[in-house]
Amino acid sequence: MSPKTTNLATMFADISGSTRLFEILGDATARVTVSDTLELLTKVIHLHNGTVIKTIGDEIMCTFPTADDAANAATEMQETLEDANDMREEGNPEIKIRVGMHFGPALLEGGDVFGDAVNVAARMAAQAKGGQIITTKSTVDLLQPIMRASTRFVDRAPIKGKKEDIEIFEIIWQEEDVTRMATGMLQEMPKIPQVSLEVSYGGKTVVLDQNKQGLVMGRSQACDLPVNEKLASRQHVRIELRRNKFFIIDQSTNGSHISMDNAEEAFLRREEMHISGNGRISLGKSFSEGPTEVVTFVLKST
């Protein structure tokens, strides 16, 4: 089927502070908690005419036919989680989500969504903190008056590929926040920490951040970091910055081995993995085999 371009609302929602969740609950319990949360969000999405495009770790990507559908779903997501937190067992951490959305033209192909609207929605999610719904002025302008009245201007931010800054708005969903907004007492949203990743091999270091958001490693000299490993494919693995998070994406024949912050070695083949700390990558060869051609990475936040 040929690609189709249509106007729709794209939304990203991810669990805020999921790394700490794993530290407190342990891997097994945290995985169940994340899975249950995503299932809860999926039910809300479907109730508001939404379509789940995919889930990546602790994040869900979805689309809606209208801006109002997306805004109503985002509000109900936050309210549903708030109710779930009220019933949580003592000692269990609160589950909060960050939501970013934008309405605009997007390309539908193979069950996935691409294009400018998707990139802008991802940037809105990166601007949000736990418990917030962040969107653009152009999306707010499409909302019904009652929903539009519960929004506030937050900031202007540059968006890659756009000449002018985009006006960022927050959709206020908690009653006390709406009251404070009406009386002018709502504080400005704190600055979101920006992440960077230093990727090093063979005496060369490439820094990924908002200015350079991806690199390719492999046997080919055309790669950003050519790796002298016989088991490596020509373009073996990518690292990308998406929504203020870094991901390793394997695209090889022999797979990639990742060791992160002394955690158990992970193996990827045509899969992707969120980078949550410092670590090492071996292209095609397990660390138990003592590989000599190892890529290292250091995650920083400013």
Would you mind describing this structure in some detail?
With 302 residues, this protein is α+β, with helices and mostly antiparallel strands. The protein folds into two domains: 4-182, 2-Layer Sandwich (Alpha-Beta Plaits); 195-301, Tumour Suppressor Smad4 (Sandwich), CATH 2.60.200. The protein is built from seven helices and 19 strands. It has helices at 18-25, 27-47, 67-86, 116-127, 137-140, 145-148, 175-182, and strands at residues 4-15, 51-56, 59-64, 97-109, 112-114, 133-136, 151-157, 166-171, 195-201, 204-208, 214-218, 225-226, 237-242, 245-250, 256-260, 266-268, 272-275, 279-283, 294-301. Strands 1, 2, 3, 4, 5, 6, 7 and 8 form an eight-stranded mixed beta sheet that branches. Strands 10-9-19-18-15-16 form a six-stranded antiparallel beta sheet, with no helix packed on it. A five-stranded mixed beta sheet has the order 12-11-13-14-17. β2 and β3 (59-64) form a beta hairpin. α1 (18-25) crosses α2 (27-47) and α2 (27-47) crosses α3. The chain starts with a strand and ends with a strand.
Overall radius of gyration: 20 Å
SSE order: EHHEEHEEHEHHEEHEEEEEEEEEEE
Shape-level CATH architecture of the largest domain: 2-Layer Sandwich
Let me know the number of strands. 19
Fraction of helical residues = 25-40%
Annotated CATH homologous superfamily of the largest domain = Nucleotide cyclase, GGDEF domain
Tally of individual domains: 2
Shape: globular
Largest beta sheet, briefly? 8 strands, mixed
What is the CATH top level name of the largest domain?
Answer: Alpha Beta
